[in-house]
């Protein structure tokens, strides 16, 4: 009963195998398991899609090509030509987040992207990459992104700190958005679903009827919405990665 | 879950924050491992394959379109050639027709002229015969008139007039 109605239990991480390297606890957990499953699913799909490449594609190949075209389209639109080397990274980010979010839609499966440790690290990695690429491409000129051109000196005293704060807040917002969306959606689903047994316990048969007629359609709707969110959050993460990368790749603005 | 430790008797709290200290490193570690595997598979195996297929297709389409353009140009050219041939043949036919017409016209004119000449000759001959016949007939008329006049005069007078007198009288009457 506790598992059935506790909305937070689904986010519980449990250790499956202990693994300790260099004093760090790297145990294989349910989270790690579903990451492995997600990656294997994506690799399996891509292997199937690219097993028989032909000029006239079959359905799976078509799907993979549409997927590739979708990601390459985002990168091309946002970063133009200099973004080309980052297409695999954006593709992987999108694939990893998307499959994790979709796996999370299945009951009893674990949503790896519902933990801030995972999404936060991905966000920090993305921003770190932006800084590294920016410094490599532009040297110290990269820091000009904090000093917009054509702004009077007096205003720069205000604008530059704002720019720096907005830059530093990016990994927080990037990681928090994904984690909070996944967590919130799943909690909402669980809470709504919990209404049915609660109503049944409180009101008996009438409660069960009310739950079935009123709450169940709501749950179906929210579930559909969650599938949309699963795709949308992966898309947003990939898109924002491209936008942030533009600071490192594009012209100063 | 194998190791659901003596977790919070009253619900599970907020695992993303509660568990970040014990499991954060493990999560990040496995994230890096799985993400790296996926990245290398995608970057080194799958995306090049997909990109190659897409580029091959674009190349094939471009090639086919170019080939089609060449073929279409060729077709246009042969249409032009064909039209020129038709025009030449038409001119040729017109030439032949007008030549044949001129020949036929000349032949007809010659035949007509020959026929006309022949008819004219026959006409002249016929006219000559007619006038001949008429002269002969006129001679006969006077002989008959003389006979008749002699017979009438004999009946009236009972005496046979001399042929010379009859002839003179007839000639006088006919000549007016």
Description of the structure:
- The complex is a heterodimer of chains A (253) and B (176).
- Helix content of chain A is 72%, strand content 4%.
- Chain A is mostly helical.
- Chain A has one domain.
- In chain A, a hairpin with a 2-residue loop joins strand 2 (20-21) and strand 3 (24-25).
- Chain A starts with a helix and ends with a helix.
- The relative contact order of chain A is 0.13.
- Residues 1-10 of chain B have low confidence and may be disordered.
- Chain B is rod-shaped and about 190 Å long.
- Chain B has helices at residues 15-18, 20-157, 163-175.
- Chain B is built from 3 helices and no strands.
- Chain B has 176 residues and is mostly helical.
- In chain B, helix 2 packs across helix 3.
- Chain B has a domain at 53-175.
- Classes of the chains: A mainly alpha (253), B mainly alpha (176).
- At the A-B interface, strand 3, strand 4, helix 2, helix 3 and helix 4 of A face helix 1 and helix 2 of B.
The helix/strand order of chain A is: HEEEEHHHHHH
Instruction: Name the beta content range of chain A.
Output: under 5%
- Low-confidence sequence ranges of chain A: none
Task: Give me the Rg of chain B, rounded.
Answer: 67 Å
The major beta sheet of chain A can be summarized as: 2 strands, antiparallel
Structural class of chain A: mainly alpha
The helix/strand series of chain B, from N terminus to C terminus, equals: HHH
Report the β-strand fraction of chain B as a percent range: under 5%
Q: What is the topology, as strand order, of the major beta sheet of chain A?
A: 1-4
State the helicity of chain A in percent bands.
over 70%
Mean pLDDT of chain B: 86
- 3D shape of chain A: globular
Percent of residues in helices of chain B comes to over 70%
Low-confidence stretches of chain B: 1-10
What is the number of independent domains of chain A? Answer: 1
What is the CA-based Rg of chain A, rounded? Answer: 22 Å
Main sheet: strands, sense, barrel of chain B: none
The DSSP helix count of chain A reads: 7
């Amino acid at each position: 009963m506790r598992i059935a109605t506790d909305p937070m239990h689904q986010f519980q991480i449990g250790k499956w195998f202990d693994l300790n390297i260099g004093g760090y606890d790297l145990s294989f957990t349910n989270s790690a398991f579903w990451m492995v499953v997600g990656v294997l699913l994506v690799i399996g799909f891509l292997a199937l899609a690219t097993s028989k490449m032909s000029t006239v594609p079959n359905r799976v190949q078509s799907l993979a090509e549409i997927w590739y075209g979708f990601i390459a389209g985002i990168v091309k639109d946002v970063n133009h030509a200099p973004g080309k080397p980052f297409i695999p990274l954006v593709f992987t980010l999108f694939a990893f987040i998307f499959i994790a979010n979709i796996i999370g839609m299945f009951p009893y499966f674990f949503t790896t992207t519902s933990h801030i440790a995972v999404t936060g690290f991905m966000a920090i990695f993305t921003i770190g990459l932006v800084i590294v690429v920016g410094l490599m491409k532009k040297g110290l000129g990269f820091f000009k992104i904090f000093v917009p051109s054509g702004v009077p000196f007096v205003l720069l005293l205000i604008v530059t700190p704002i720019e720096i704060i907005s830059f530093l807040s990016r990994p927080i917002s990037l990681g928090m958005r994904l984690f909070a969306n996944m967590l919130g959606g799943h909690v909402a689903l669980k809470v709504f679903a919990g209404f049915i047994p609660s109503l049944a316990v409180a009101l008996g048969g009438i409660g069960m009827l009310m739950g079935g007629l009123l709450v169940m359609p709501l749950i179906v709707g929210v579930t559909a919405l969650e599938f949309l969110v699963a795709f949308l959050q992966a898309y947003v993460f990939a898109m924002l990665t491209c936008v942030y990368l533009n600071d490192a790749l594009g012209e100063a603005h | 879950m194998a190791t659901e430790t003596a977790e919070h008797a009253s619900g599970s709290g907020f695992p993303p924050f509660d568990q970040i200290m014990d499991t954060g490193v493990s999560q990040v570690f496995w994230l890096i491992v799985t993400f790296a595997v996926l990245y290398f598979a995608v970057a080194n195996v799958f995306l090049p394959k997909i990109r190659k297929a897409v580029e091959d297709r674009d190349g094939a389409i471009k090639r086919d379109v170019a080939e089609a353009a060449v073929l279409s140009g060729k077709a246009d050219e042969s249409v032009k050639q064909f039209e020129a041939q038709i025009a030449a043949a038409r001119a040729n036919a017109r030439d032949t027709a007008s030549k044949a017409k001129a020949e036929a016209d000349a032949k007809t004119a010659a035949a007509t002229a020959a026929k006309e000449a022949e008819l004219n000759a026959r006409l002249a001959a016929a006219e000559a015969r007619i006038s001949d016949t008429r002269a002969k007939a006129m001679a006969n008329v006077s002989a008959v008139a003389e006979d008749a006049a002699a017979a009438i005069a004999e009946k009236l007078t009972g005496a046979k007039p001399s042929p010379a007198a009859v002839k003179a009288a007839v000639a006088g009457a006919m000549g007016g």
